[in-house]
């Protein structure tokens, strides 16, 4: 049975079919949400929040020097936690909470004709929570803790609806291009706001404000950016009726919240290729996230590079990833997303091997490695989203994308744990970086076991022509 939006309804004979134009308009509007939310993830969750939270919590713990590594503790829910570890603990808590919340959101989205409203509602609630970070000052870290956890969970909820909309507005032939354009647009928006925020933070004296106020204003700007640009897809996207294949949901909210994840995982056994891809994705995505998280540590501690070089490299990665996402989207149109994902994981393995040989103090090679990371990062993340959409049974997009997000968040700490353990055992970041090779290798090997055509057909979806061409070849 066909599941393409283009084929689901017929155009009247003798009348021009305007559906492709309507889809293209919605696809452009859809991309704006990547632009909107990526700025918050890049500026706040990746760069600004953790060091500022450590400073504020450290002050509450009795560590007045913001440059001091604070091992003193603060109390959270009866637990004594090191101020320096607080951001990591908050991220872990938000991750675990999301694993329970996202599946019920996905199940709800599948039966709704108003996905864009859910996306925007969760986004605006998340942005409101994120804006409260502006009021985290002095030693009042508790407000910031609540705000960042709420913003992270609500942001994940909005993405479940956002990803599900992708299936409504694109055919299988368009999916890779649309997803790649969204990721590219997100990198561009995130990079642009991060650039502006770094100008404010690093040049705060020129604006007549202190460092902490500059950071708080920058975090507020990310929340406002997120909320403001969400208006574009909310206004321009249409509501789409839920698929007739969407299952009915019964039981209490508690049953649906805590039972839906396990129900979906149990039903995955009927879609072995979908499960195979999820396992592969868990491995290589964990490697991607760990490389991103550890790159600045490796550059500063192992290679002795300055903070200026690291900041410039982070910005460069954002803008080069824009091109990488578009490049992989174009390659997928002729070679298929599956083959491009295999190439991408091989590229990640080559980067990890090259990274251990980088000489200390060599800025040029470090920046070149960062550019290579940007190209494969943009491509693999964009195509993972679009390829997975082909492996989802029709009418179950929200449910399965919730599992996709929950699984990603729930295991994304394995790589950082391995990185930390290897460093602790060896005292060097070079073997710690090299150890990450195992995640990309395992992801590659599991991908090789995947039959993409079988998986797409088992899910009841149309096989893209690019995949059929490669199979015939």
Automatic annotation (TrEMBL):
Subcellular location: Endomembrane system
Membrane topology, as annotated: Multi-pass membrane protein
Highest taxon, organism lineage: Bacteria
Transmembrane segments: 32-54, 86-108, 120-136, 142-165, 185-207, 213-235, 268-284, 304-328, 340-360, 366-388, 400-423, 429-448
Pfam families per record: ATG22
Keyword set, alphabetical order: Membrane, Transmembrane, Transmembrane helix, Transport
InterPro entries, alphabetized: Atg22-like (IPR024671), ATG22/LtaA_families (IPR050495), MFS_trans_sf (IPR036259)
SUPFAM superfamilies given in the database record: MFS general substrate transporter (SSF103473)
PANTHER family for this protein: AUTOPHAGY-RELATED PROTEIN 22 (PTHR23519:SF1)
Protein name: MFS transporter
Organism (species): Nocardioides kribbensis
